[in-house]
Write a structure and sequence with these properties.
With about 160 residues, this protein is α+β, with helices and mostly antiparallel strands. The protein is built from 1 helix and 11 strands, in the order αβββββββββββ.
Length: about 160
């Protein structure tokens, strides 16, 4: 029981940190001080681009990845699955694949204000997302990020 409570507390803390970080990023973006993306790729549907915003080691021996979808088109765009088994990290040096962490109920530790299932993005609008992964070994400095519907984002540095 104590072990489960400890894991739950760690998970709750990680989610709270991610939510606070997400809010800060939204405030920076609104102020026009958004950080430069680590990578930008076209999404497989419509006029949507995906910007990789952060790959960072976080508490609980995890890595938090943040990205956003931006609809550059003149009509709404649907992203059918924000999180799936097609979302993972690859540590090429150690030949290891890392999938999104799941909680004790089997739910992905990922999302946004609307969850992680699907979203319609209005023309000109953006939609932020995040996900938590097990951290690769400390000596691993770069990772490849695989997002559904997007070309691999390779050799992305992992920040501390």
């Amino acid at each position: 029981m104590i072990v489960k409570l400890g894991r739950f507390a760690t998970l709750a803390l990680a989610i709270a940190v991610a939510v606070a970080s997400h809010r800060a990023a939204r405030a920076e973006e609104a102020a026009g001080d958004a950080p430069k993306p680590l990578a930008v790729e076209d999404y497989s549907e419509a006029d949507v681009e995906v910007s990789l915003l952060q790959v960072k080691r976080t508490t609980g021996d995890t890595v938090t990845v943040k990205w956003k979808y931006k609809n550059r088109g003149d009509k709404p765009a649907r992203i059918p699955a924000l999180v799936s088994d097609e979302l993972y990290l690859v540590d090429a040096a150690n030949k290891k694949k890392y999938f999104v962490i799941k909680d004790e109920k089997g739910q992905w530790v990922a999302g946004s204000a609307h969850g992680y299932h699907s979203v319609d993005i209005k023309e000109g609008a953006s939609f932020p997302m995040w996900a938590k992964f097990p951290a690769p070994p400390a000596k691993t400095e770069k990772i490849t990020v695989y997002l559904p519907g997007v070309a691999p984002m390779e050799d992305v540095p992992i920040s501390q």
